[in-house]
Amino acid sequence: MPTTPMRLLTALGLAALSVLPAAAQGEASRTLRLVPHADLSIIDPHFSGVYITRNFGYLVYDTLLALDHEFQPRPQMLDI
To answer: What pTM value is reported for the model?
Structure first.
């Protein structure tokens, strides 16, 4: 088993390697990548009650009302 300083250096090295690909892309790349926790087989949230369907709906479809930072409903698509 490695010593504590060796573990720290290994962890720092792995952390630096994980940041490099994101830093190499620069500001020009604005792609949002999502890794879902399950397969999305049904996209109708009224037919299916699983979280992956609900999350897909929130990411793809807009809603009439949304909650603000004080959890008060505010118009999102609705024009009042």
So the answer is: 0.39
Domain locations along the chain: 36-80
Model confidence pLDDT, tens digit, residues 37-63: 788 888 887 888 788 888 888 778 777
**pLDDT for the residue 10:** 74
Q: Are residues 46 and 58 in contact, defined by beta-carbon separation less than 8 angstroms?
A: no
Matching residue, tokens 């949304």 = 66
Whole-angstrom distance, CA of residue 61 vs CA of residue 8:
44
User: What is residue 32's three-state secondary structure?
Assistant: coil
Which DSSP helix (H) or strand (E) runs through 75? strand 73-75
Burial 51-78 (b: 16+ CB within 10 A, else e): ebbebbeeeeeeeeeeeeeeeeeeeeee
pLDDT for 5 equals 67
